[in-house]
């Protein structure tokens, strides 16, 4: 969605004297641990990204994504937590005093004032036809604001210890004119893994990424993927992440884009339905705590969590996402999910409008006694 009130922001700051500037494939490693095992190693932290700049400049390093090599050592793990902080130059607005918009522009050049997809994944494929990456985090950036995320990835780590490549993706774009966003906008990402070796909470038999990509347009509303259930599986789940984006409209839409369209997702394992999902968020207004920027006169109101967005847009319901929020996975269980052997996961979106797209990932987890 578009920005909300950049001209008002700049006008207010000018009055204040702030203007004037002319990157676990199919893991099946067991994670046995218990009180009779060897003594656990000490906790440690993996600093994957330290304020890494994700840029909208296609000629610069880290254009729309960055990667870091990590190693999950000293398995098994009692706990592994991924902690992520998203930094921005758009907010707080007082920072515009030292980083004003260039002449003729309405935003600081390095500010991305839009809401963007914000994803972290493991081992994305380097060639066509390779196994998909494993999505760890699906979130949306705020409209120009900071964001803090914490995600438990203990089962992933116990299912696939060892070396991996962590990838962060934000499809940030610049506005060369600097009118609706910065002319060279981007985001700063800091991410770490807080690792506590010790007895695993569950015996992980497999962590298998099944799909991670887009479903676009009216002829791509159904997909499928094969999965293998290991011998000894007692419990299992599929984590299914979906968010709607892009253009298009139609029945069930409250606005002219797929993000404003309520769709039904039906998921099958073999021929048995295991999910009938309504991925629609109605809690986005919780991410709009009204704040006021005083300029000595009228000033302006904004959403503290989404400072550069129009208030009405921030609060609007959406296709399973809200600006400035993480989208948790749907947890699917049941059916033949614990029956050893090969199975087929199949999912169908009730409708995808021309120009619309659903971002989808599916990951299979199997657990033993």
Residue share in β-strands: 35-45%
The oligomeric status of these chains comes to single chain
Q: Detail the poorly predicted runs.
A: 1-35
Instruction: Round the Cα radius of gyration to an integer and report it.
Output: 22 Å
Characterize the largest beta sheet: strand count, sense, and whether it forms a barrel: 4 strands, antiparallel
Shape: globular
Average pLDDT taken over every residue: 90
Please estimate the helix content.
under 10%
Count of helical segments? 3
Give the helix/strand class.
mainly beta
Number of strands: 18
Distance between the termini: 47 Å
H/E series, N to C? HEEEEEEHEEEEEEEEEHEEE
The strands making up the biggest β-sheet line up spatially as 1-8-3-6
Task: Please give a structural write-up.
By secondary structure, the protein is mostly beta strands. The chain has helices at 6-15, 154-159, 311-315, and strands spanning 44-55, 65-72, 77-87, 117-122, 134-140, 147-152, 162-169, 186-197, 203-216, 222-229, 235-246, 265-269, 272-277, 290-293, 300-303, 330-332, 341-349, 356-368. The strands form five sheets. Strands 1-8-3-6 form a four-stranded antiparallel sheet. The protein has a four-stranded antiparallel sheet with strand order 2-7-4-5, with no helix packed on it. It has a four-stranded antiparallel sheet with strand order 9-18-11-16. Strand 12 and strand 13 (272-277) form a beta hairpin. It is globular and about 70 Å long. Residues 1-35 have low confidence and may be disordered.
